[in-house]
Amino acid sequence: MASASPRQSVLTRPPRTRFIVMSLALALLANLLPWNGVAVLLWPDLVALVLLYWIIHYPRRIGLASAWFLGLLMDIAEGVLFGQHALAYVVTAYAAWLLHRRLQTFNPWQQALYVLGLLLLLELTMLLVRLAFGAAFPGWLYFAGSLVGAVLWPLLTLVLQLPQRRQPATTPPYGTASR
Amino acid sequence: MIDTTPPPFFKTGLRPATRFAIFALLSLFLILADARFGYLHPLRQALAVIINPLQHAVNAPVRLAAQVGEFFVTQTRLRVENDELREARLRLSGQLMEFQALQAENAHLRALLKARERYANHAQLAEILYSERDPFARKIIIDRGSLHQVEPGQVVVDELGVVGQVTRVYPGVSEVTLITDKNQAVPVQNLRNGLRAVVFGSGQDGTLNVPFMPIHADLQPGDQLVTSGIDGIYPPGLPVATVLRVERNAAYPFARITCLPAAGVDRHRQVLVVASHAPAPPPRPKPMESARGKR
Fold it and tell me: Does residue A26 belong to the interface with chain B, where contact is any CB pair within 8 Å?
């Protein structure tokens, strides 16, 4: 049943927990890169992207608790209102969890459209929280990051699938029923 | 087909909707605790200890690249720069001699007037690590923290004027809110006529506002605004901004005054953190008790 979806025809092996943690840590580091000016706004939230990837493809491995904790880490890293990213990540992760069955049957470019919506939801949540506590509207360019993120989605899918694609000879063929 | 919701095969804990509600409420609680009451400073400090080394690690390659780039400057550029610096030094040493004479004279006059001496400022050089990714605020992170005796409220300047104020201090780094941030206020004085005002950041495009000035306030384009020093935090006399334009519309009670910051707020790599040793202001009178006593 599961092998009917295009994802399952490509992925043959479930990812190791170590790999999931490492990808999220790398995304966090990439988010900490010292950008200035417009690049700050255009740089997509890579932690959110990687998190969405794992939640959509392996919803049993990573859930709302991880999303919440990552959000807290982002709040610390950016020195913003405590809980702002945490709330936005939890909302987005839950939305992605609701959609994950549908999204798994799409190809990455179709998924990118949904991911754009999810990333916009993320930024909208943060915008509402900040506006509620008296910040000024930062301009429409604020939403540009999610557009860049959605364009990066197929590439990200490719990169994160690489370790699963390489099928070692030791794995028996029943690996196709991966979950 | 018959039953659309089969009993769960595996125990998965709480239902996702419940879990979502719990985490969302937890986040909202954190947001409220931080924004309204500021309870979370110790937690932030503790977690920053984890994050800060990561930030330094990420910054290392970028800095290394910058250093490598600096190493390969051309000979001609070095020579031109050297000449310029020599010329600047000559010019400045002339000014310095004048300044020393003036300082001596000033000290003498103040002694004559028995005036309180202007407090000495202690400044330390800090390097800007990066600007924060928060598009709602104008903040930068510098590489000096509580280990280097940086305290919240200290003023950050460059060679042209005020850049901002230290708002949060971590062990190794601190956060500086730029004067262009929407919530950042600087008490200033017009250099031309001594008019006092408070300058706020606009938060938008690197400009500053002077809100709540009456229509007939004596401010003109080109006026220099310097810190007034009456707040006891900013040392007096530091350049803050230049008035760019003044819009006086009789339909509104206040004039719209736009200023440009004097310092290169977004441009520099090194800044000075000024520790002012201003004497503590006298305690406030207690109007509540006297009012109660009268009643």
Answer: no
